Amino acid sequence: MYLVKTPVLISKLMSKSLIWNIPTSEKKIYLSFDDGPIPYLTMEILKILADYQAKATFFCVGENAKNYPELMDRIKDDGHLIGNHSYNHLSGWKTPVSNYIENVTKASNYIDSNLFRPPYGQINYQQIKHLKAKYKIIMWNILSGDFDKQLSNEQCLFNVLQSKPGDIVVFHDNEKSREKVLNVLPQYLAHFTDLGYEFCSLTPLL
Ligand SMILES: [Zn+2]
Q1: How many CA atoms lie within 13 A of 120 on its CB side?
Q2: Alpha carbon of 120 to ligand 1 centroid (Å)
Q3: Beta partners for 170?
Q4: Can you give the residue ranges of every domain in the chain?
Q5: Residue 100 and residue 120 in contact, taking contact as beta carbons nearer than 8 Å
Q6: I need a labelling partner for 141 at 20 to 30 A (CA). Which of 64, 119, 162, 199 fits?
Q7: What is the C-alpha separation between 174 and 150, in angstroms, rounded?
Q8: Residue 47 has pLDDT above 60, yes or no
Q9: Is 80 exceeded by the pLDDT of residue 9?
């Protein structure tokens, strides 16, 4: 079970250390892609983003960043930001604090960024305490559900069409989400571009 929109109460409870959106009245949406980079899909996503002059933040898994340095370069060359998503996509709830921090540090050898997003959004208080000295910890307030095999393309599009100014929106740069991302992303970008929105990377946080 997961929630498309993060309940206000949950985000307020943890809002001191975690970033859920970028408050603004400007028509800006902060797109993000988790779990890449991977061959083919990352390039296809980059092409779609370029078609709409959209910028995004890619929260990369360290192991993938190590294996595909040329894709990391492409992401940066296209003007997008990168963020750390741990080396092995660990759940903070299932991983002892020291191992978790070690894994994030290992990823930082391949991902030069002060942005971190916990895989599955699962992180505990001690882990936050350690990481926030070095990182801005980025959550989201709109989850596309692109990874969900039960979800139709239409439902996935419906989820992201709820975006408002300043929202942080999550898609995935992984095989499981491939079909939905490639179908939904262009429709989503077209819809909000027509409404005068700009898609931005998380540069305000640097
Ligand atoms: Zn992830």
Answers
A1: 12
A2: 6
A3: 32, 143
A4: 8-205
A5: no
A6: 64
A7: 16
A8: yes
A9: no
Task: With cut-offs at 50, 70 and 90, classify the pLDDT of residue 180.
Answer: very high
**CA–CA separation, 119 and 170 (whole Å):** 12
Q: Name the 3-class secondary structure at 170.
A: strand
Write down the residue that tokens 């993938």 correspond to.
Answer: 64
> Could you tell me the distance, in angstroms and rounded to a whole number, from the CA of residue 160 to the centre of ligand 1?
18
Nearest to 171 by CA among 33, 16, 56: 33
Quote the tokens at residue 90.
Answer: 């660990």
pLDDT score of 27 more than 80? yes
CA separation for the pair 100, 164 (Å, rounded): 33
Q: 158 C-alpha vs ligand 1 centroid, how far in Å?
A: 21
Pairing label, strands 142-143, 198-200: unpaired
Domain 8-205: CATH superfamily, name plus number: Glycoside hydrolase/deacetylase (3.20.20.370)
Q: Ligand 1 centroid vs 35 CA: distance in angstroms?
A: 5
Output DSSP code: residue 21. B
Residue 169 predicted with pLDDT over 60: yes
State the distance from the centre of ligand 1 to the C-alpha of 193, rounded, in angstroms. Answer: 26
pTM of the model: 0.94
SS (H, E, C) 12-78: HHCCCCEECECCCCCCEEEEEEECCCCCCHHHHHHHHHHHCCCCCEEEECHHHHHHCHHHHHHHHHC
